[in-house]
Design a protein that fits this description.
Elements lengths: L8 E9 L3 H11 L3 E2 L14 H23 L10 H19 L6 H48 L20 H6 L4 E9 L3 H11 L5 E5 L19 E9 L5 H12 L3 E3 L5 H37 L9 H19 L3 E3 L2 E9 L3 H14 L7 E4 L21 H10 L9 H17 L2 H16 L10 H5 L1 H18 L20 E2 L10 E2 L34 H34 L3 H31 L13 H10 L20 H21 L1 H26 L16 H35 L2 H25 L2 H27 L2 H39 L16 H6 L4
Antiparallel strand pairs: 1-8, 1-9, 2-8, 3-5, 3-6, 4-5, 7-8, 10-11
Helix pairs in contact: 1-9, 1-10, 2-4, 2-8, 2-9, 4-8, 6-7, 11-12, 12-15, 12-23, 12-24, 13-15, 16-17, 16-22, 16-23, 17-19, 17-22, 20-21, 20-22, 23-24
Length: 895
């Protein structure tokens, strides 16, 4: 099972020639199988050998992004890549065609050609865009000037040409426009354009600075469906004409203040002709220049559009635009050089270490052999599995074979922590347990079916929704589908449909004629729904004969007075049963892990005591719950029905004595009955399990660490004497790469020395770290572990009561919403009330139940999965298998 445990990994050694390094990694990047180990993780990128190549890739990517952004500005559609494996095959075919047709067999030179081409294209584009911007700015300036002249003429009227240049002091406070224009010869003006968003603030600033000794007006501009365009963003600009009239003065104080305000608001200011003929000539001149400028702008824009069409077209065999094709290739090349930085060079030989799935070793080597066969000039590399010389070597990464269905469940597990190598993966169990626990809390036929339909919609329309706002939800489509399915299933178990119950199979009770409850005083007024006569004995006693509601709850409970009491009891007991089962599963998986990792101490002194303690305490509680369900306590015997809570409390307090009615055994002698004996035995064994968890393990670990010190010293001396041993084991495979073998044979011993020295250093550090942990430290740690488990068993079991609490809250919310919105209208028979109530009911249901309550149930299910279940066995201290993969690199590129 690929999801039960992570794939088995091999630690391998990659050797390749300097000339074939690029081709070798290009093939391995397509396979996505090698997780390279960084020999110097603290070395800065700038000090690595291929830092310059990575910088060049980033520069090319920046230029392509510049081209792409401007193509979008000019309304050209960029087709994004949707099929990365096909794109990688296209790149491979392009390199092969280039080698065949042009004789360029060195694949890495393709990027050099792209770099040169893109650099030239980027330079040309920058020049054209600057030219286009200058032409557009000139066109805008002419149109703005014309708009200012026309609007200023409208405001000034006949006095437009009567403004004089005489220097006179005048106060125009509280003067209207007509009075001001009557004294036009004593006035001056500033006209221009300002951004519409700043117009009101500008007008206030002018008034405050001049203390009201000006007249200002803002006029809208009718661009006649042809607004001025921002030359950089190519978006329309919203501007308004401002006109400021102020009295002349010899000091020009007001004029200077107004000019500074205009400059601070980045306003465009224009002069006004002093004569009618000059005004007409200016308008005519502007119109002629505007036509000429518009013609140049359109011609330049046409050339740019044609240029961008070349970049946005889709070339044969590719599934994306040319600019995106080159950009993704640059990303691919950058990832390749990042990986080359993880290799070391010696005598023109590249070598490095990597983890690879055991099942992919032969396939990787066969790929490199095929590379050498296709291109004889390229000496293929070798992947040699290596026997780990020390246990202190870095743990292997965790790799699972995932698909669209399992990936989202594994993502939830990895969010808590990546599984340890070969550890049992809780993600496998979350496929069923997570949506089921959610369904227990969200159980409702209607709400669950709505969620199921939404998940089904995402599944069926996955491809069509990838470019919409629902794209993130498509990744979790199967997860949503499963949650909806289990919520619907639990809704049938609860017989709950928007707080209503359905009589699918016929109730076992007669709801038409309530009668006095058997065994009660009629004066007390207790009424019961009695069994249907076909289901009772002929003698008339109300004993259930054969009737059992086939599936789910009997609908009669929805109208019973003790509905809440019964439903609460039912759901609470279900919650603790599910909880104990899931926690017991977690403990069993802990034992399985101990067997798999060959940890007998953990198996004997942790797993066995823990599973025994859990089974004899809370497992016994589940047994009593189920056993009591099978017992028929009726009429007079109902008073002897024991309380399970009381029985559990009395087990430790009264040493197993029921101290009241017994659940099983001889009821006439509860003090010496079977139940007391069994509970006494269970209690004693459970108490013995606590010191068994606490004491043996730290003692054994302490003496084991003391006895291992001399052997460690011998191991260190022996390792230093055997540094000349062959690096590779019997798994070495000869792939006929004679050239590489001759060149690499001289450095294999050096590689082994380097690796062995590193491993010895790690081993020594780990050893001293273990010595520092004395017996006291080990014992304190085990005390914490024991207390955490014992108290956690109680708190975790209680935590599963959230299944009952959330289910109860969900049902009561649905009931209140239905009764307060739609229920009243249905009872009254008012069509308008029904329509209004239905509208409110739908809005509240979607907003509260299907959004807020759904998220609440999801988070509580997540808590149960992460804490109550996974803390029983899950270490979560591994790290993810991240292979060198072109496909992964391309997927992480921002669109």
């Amino acid at each position: 099972m690929s999801l039960f445990r992570s794939q088995k990994m091999k630690y391998c050694h990659l050797i390749c020639n300097e000339d074939s390094a690029w081709d070798t990694l290009n093939e391995l990047g397509e396979m996505s199988t090698l997780h390279f180990v960084d020999p110097e993780p603290n070395l800065p990128l700038i000090n690595r050998p291929f830092a310059n190549y990575i910088k060049r890739c980033e520069e090319v990517d920046f230029k392509l992004q510049f081209i792409k952004e401007n193509a979008i500005k000019f309304q050209q559609e960029i087709k994004q890549c949707k099929d990365y494996p096909q794109l990688i095959k296209y790149y491979k075919k392009t390199l092969e065609d280039r080698s065949t047709n042009e004789g360029k067999k060195d694949g890495k030179t393709y990027f050099l050609d792209l770099e040169q081409e893109i650099g030239d294209q980027h330079k040309w584009l920058e020049e054209q865009l600057k030219h286009y911007e200058s032409l557009q700015e000139k066109k805008n300036l002419l149109r703005e000037y014309k708009a200012v002249l026309i609007n200023a003429k409208k405001v000034f009227g006949d006095t437009f040409f009567q403004l004089d240049n005489k220097e006179q002091n005048m106060d125009i406070h509280a003067m209207g426009l007509e009075q001001i224009l009557e004294n036009a010869s004593q006035m001056s003006s500033i006209v221009g354009l300002i951004d519409a968003s700043e117009a009101l603030r500008f007008q206030r600033m002018v008034f405050r600075v001049t203390k009201g000794n000006t007249y200002s007006e803002i006029k809208d501009i009718d661009w006649q469906d042809d607004p001025i365009i921002d030359p950089q963003t190519l978006l329309p600009l919203d501007k308004k004409v401002f006109i400021i009239i102020y009295p002349r003065s010899s000091m020009d104080i007001i004029k200077n203040k107004l000019n500074r305000i205009c400059d601070s608001f980045n306003c465009s200011k224009f002069g006004i002709p002093q004569y009618q003929a000059e005004y007409i000539d200016k308008l005519h001149e502007i119109e002629e220049q505007k036509k000429e400028s518009a013609s140049l702008v359109e011609m330049t824009k046409y050339n740019l559009v044609q240029y961008f069409k070349e970049w946005t077209k889709i070339r044969n065999g590719c599934n994306c635009s040319k600019v995106e094709e080159f950009r993704l290739y640059t990303v691919k090349e950058k990832g390749l050089y990042h990986t080359l930085n993880l290799l070391k060079t010696d005598q023109k030989i590249y070598q490095g270490y990597a983890w690879i799935p055991k099942s992919d070793v032969d396939a990787a080597n066969n790929t490199l052999v095929e590379l050498g066969r296709r291109n004889p000039e390229v000496v293929g590399g070798q992947i040699k599995p290596q026997k780990k010389p020390s246990q202190s070597i870095e743990k292997p990464p965790t790799a699972f074979k995932l698909n669209e269905f399992t990936s989202v469940f594994q993502l939830i597990t990895n969010t808590y922590g990546t599984p340890r190598y070969r550890e049992i993966n809780p993600g496998l169990f979350s496929l069923a347990t997570f949506p089921f626990l959610f369904g227990v809390m969200f159980g409702d036929m209607a709400h669950g079916f709505l969620l199921f339909c939404f998940g089904l919609f995402l599944v069926l329309n996955n491809k069509n929704l990838q470019q919409t706002a629902l794209a993130p939800l498509c990744y979790a489509r199967f997860f949503i589908l499963f949650m909806g399915f289990f919520a619907t299933y639990c809704g049938f178990l609860y017989n709950d449909f928007l707080s209503l119950s359905f009589n699918f199979f016929g109730s076992c009770y007669d709801a038409t004629t309530p009668q006095t409850c058997p065994g009660t005083d009629p004066k007390q007024g207790f009424e019961c729904y009695l069994y249907n006569q076909k289901n009772v004995t002929p003698a008339g006693s109300f004993e259930l004969k054969t009737c059992v509601y086939p599936f789910g709850l009997d609908p009669i409970w929805s109208i019973a007075d003790n509905n809440i009491t019964f439903i609460n009891s039912y759901k609470m007991k279900l919650a603790v049963i599910f909880g104990v089962i899931q926690m017991s599963l977690g403990i069993l998986l802990k034992g399985w892990n101990a067997i798999s990792f060959k940890q007998p101490i953990d198996f004997i002194f942790e797993f066995i005591p823990q599973i025994t303690f859990m089974a004899l305490t809370f497992g016994y509680m589940d047994f009593m719950i189920i056993y009591k369900w099978f017992c028929n306590f009726q009429e007079a015997e109902s008073q002897f029905a024991p309380s399970i809570i009381t029985l559990l409390i009395n087990m430790p307090l009264k040493f197993g004595s029921p101290d009241g009615p017994v659940l099983y055994g001889d009821p006439s002698d509860p003090a010496n009955g079977l139940q007391q004996k069994i509970q006494m035995i269970f209690l004693i064994i459970a108490l013995i399990m606590v010191p068994m968890m606490l004491i043996p393990k730290p003692i054994i670990l302490y003496y084991k660490s003391k006895s291992s010190r001399p052997s460690h010293q011998l191991l260190q001396q022996g390792s230093q004497q055997n540094l000349q041993n062959p690096l590779l084991g019997n798994e070495y495979h000869d792939h006929s790469n004679v050239g590489i073998q001759k060149q690499s044979s001289s450095i294999e011993i050096g590689l082994e020395k380097e690796l062995e020295a590193s491993l010895l250093q790690k081993s020594e550090q780990d050893h001293h770290q273990g010595d520092d942990h004395g017996f006291g430290e080990l014992f304190v740690h085990q005390v914490i572990e024991t207390i955490e488990f014992v108290l956690g068993s109680i708190s975790n079991t209680a935590s599963y009561l959230r299944l009952w609490a959330l289910s109860l809250a969900h049902g009561q919310l649905a009931k209140v919403f239905f009764e307060k919105t739609l229920g009243g209208g249905i009872q009254g028979g008012n069509i308008i009330a029904i329509f209004i109530g239905l509208t409110l009911f739908v809005i509240i249901t979607l907003g509260v139940i299907m959004a807020m309550d759904l998220m609440e149930c999801f988070l509580h299910a997540l808590r149960l999965q992460w804490v109550e279940f996974q803390n029983k066995f899950y270490k979560a201290d591994g790290y993810k298998f991240e292979p060198f993969s072109f496909q992964t690199a391309l997927k992480t590129v921002e669109v």
